[in-house]
Design the sequence.
């Protein structure tokens, strides 16, 4: 089992534990905000399952029907997670509205906050692990899952503040009011996850820092060639796709041109892990004089 798959499985187990604690906290207090917090955790379970499925699919090797691999499956999972974050926020807004219409005193608020705090601590630690490991593994599904958990942590922190203020002031309307404010923040977070995931599905180019590394590799490793132009990049899950035209002297043999391509691909693999490089070799009269300069 790969590390990404182990992390996705761990998210399911963490989700079950956190949901159980939050439901217990709501049952102890009757708090609308804590109920909303628990509702979001049900979405955590669904998105963790979606991430697990996506990572399993993305890990499959290329086949006849998917010659470029299954990497984009992770983006579909990330989009689903963003949408479900938004749905959770709408559920919270509904519960907050009902609480505003009929505010009530809470039962055992301190005990409930302690239980909810334990769930929040678990989520915070696991969210940090998912985001950090997801970036290291270049897994959009894990990163999106981690960010989703961060929104849950923020929700829980806001809920705790609201419950404490309501307890101190006896203004029980603060409970649903703060839940509504946190829901708005969750809506923003969900829309951001969707936007970033859609950029991958739309074959958005790699970040500028990565593009600079790619251009540097081509410039330094294409010795013997004339220039490189029409560079195109995109990312799909953990894979980075690099395509460009390489202009070589007209008298160069196929063997020598292939040696240059092999050298570039090997260096690209070191500079940009899990890269997929496609090079179209052209004769010298195809030079555009506007591409990447090859260093001697």
Sequence:
């Amino acid at each position: 089992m790969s590390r990404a798959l182990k992390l996705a499985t761990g998210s399911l187990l963490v989700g079950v534990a956190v949901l159980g604690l939050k439901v217990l906290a709501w049952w102890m207090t009757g708090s609308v905000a804590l109920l909303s917090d628990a509702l979001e955790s049900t979405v955590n379970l669904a998105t963790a399952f979606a991430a697990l499925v996506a990572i399993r699919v993305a890990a499959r090797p290329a086949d006849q029907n998917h010659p470029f691999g299954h990497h984009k499956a992770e983006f579909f999972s990330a989009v689903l997670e963003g949408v479900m974050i938004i749905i959770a926020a709408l559920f919270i807004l509904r519960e907050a509205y009902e609480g505003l219409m009929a505010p009530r005193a809470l039962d055992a608020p301190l005990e409930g906050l302690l239980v909810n705090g334990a769930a929040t601590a678990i989520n915070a630690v696991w969210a940090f692990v998912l985001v950090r490991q997801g970036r290291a593994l270049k897994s959009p599904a894990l990163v999106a899952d981690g960010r989703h958990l961060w929104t849950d942590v923020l929700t829980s922190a806001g809920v705790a503040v609201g419950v404490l203020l309501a307890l101190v002031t006896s203004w029980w309307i603060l409970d649903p009011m703060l839940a509504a404010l946190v829901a708005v923040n969750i809506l923003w977070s969900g829309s951001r996850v969707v936007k970033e995931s859609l950029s991958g599905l739309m074959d958005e180019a790699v970040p500028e820092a990565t593009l600079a590394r790619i251009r540097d590799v081509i410039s330094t490793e294409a010795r013997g060639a004339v220039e490189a132009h029409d560079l195109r990049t995109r990312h799909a899950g953990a894979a980075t796709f690099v395509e460009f035209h390489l202009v070589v002297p007209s008298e160069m043999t196929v063997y020598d041109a292939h040696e240059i391509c092999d050298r570039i691909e090997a260096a690209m693999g070191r500079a940009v892990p899990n890269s997929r490089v496609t090079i179209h070799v052209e004769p010298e009269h195809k030079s555009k004089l506007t591409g990447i300069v090859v260093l001697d």
In short: Residues 140-169 form the longest helix (30 residues).
